[in-house]
Write a structure and sequence with these properties.
The protein is of the alpha+beta class. Helix content is about 75%, strand content about 5%.
Amino acid sequence: IYAAILGTVVAVLELGLIWYAGRLVDLMAQGPEGFWQAHGGEVILAAIFFLLLRPIAVAVNAVVLFCGISTNMLPQVRWRAHRHMLGQPVNFFQSDFAGRLSNRVMNLGPAAEDTVFLGFEAFWQAGAFAIATLILLLGMDWRLAFPLALWIALFILFVVTFAPVAKRASEKFNLVNSMTSGRIVDSYTNIETVKLFADARREEAFALSALRRLRLRFGVLMRFFAFQQGAMAAFNSAAMLMVIGPAIWLWSVSAISIGEVAAAIAMALRLNMMTGWIMWMTVRTYEHFGVMAESLQSVAVPQTVTDIPDAPALKVSEGRIEIEDVSHHYGKEAGGLDHLNLVIPGGQKVGLVGPSGAGKSSLVNLILRFRDIEEGRILIDGQDISGVRQDTLRGAI
């Protein structure tokens, strides 16, 4: 709320400074004789108002954006993403690269934070400035306001046409970037295995193929930026004529003053600079959308092994384990456990023997509740493990 209010104040003060510069031109056009006697007080008050109040408003707005929003949002997004990921079952991590998952968590924070920051620092202020400019020009002459309104409409059309292309290119780039990070981090994490099996060359080729794909995706993104810069420059040059031309013509027929022409040209120049900046910020924002979309492929996956609301702690008295009609196949039709019944009294040692794939590790993982059982149930001292808190279950094992 504070960022929205302060952003509007900064935009209005900036426009007010341009408007008063135009008024000052009109006052000075009357000649130097008696200027200070007639208008000196007004000029001094305007100088104090704009040169003192505007820096204060800009400074306070910057404090809210940088120290209020950015400082808190970046770690908060990462923390929430990390906390959600920690709640995923073990097989979620076993089926993906640790490097890719961590890259997605870390990238999500800056993308979300900068998107919100730009929303206030760029788009909100620019929107307030454009609306206030239209109102001011409408007060001068509707024939000044109409070309500007047309310019703004064409600019918005230009942005919404090209920015989604940047989003798609950014999403594909970040997908390959996360994959590349995953392959590299995986090599480092398993360096003993890589060296033990003399497999460094294959790992090099594996990473190099990902880096080549990353270069191609990055090249697509950079070509789009180059095209966007050229198109934006041509668009703004044409758009300037739509405001400055009518302003000069209206002055030539005595419809507006020379000061109003100066103010209109200054507003058009400011909007011209602002639209280039806004276009770049828009592309950056859509880039962030691409980063977030890619990151959310992991971060937004619903947790499959969760505690029921207000789940009690596991209370161990004897340590008796009862496995009742348990079946688990990891979603496959064959393999795994089929209708297993087993009772292990507290204190007894039991060995699980069988060939690879018989379900030995699976049974232990189910008792630890690394996964939820497809059929049946497991009880410890008469308590269904699906109904107690996971941390107390594993803490007791």
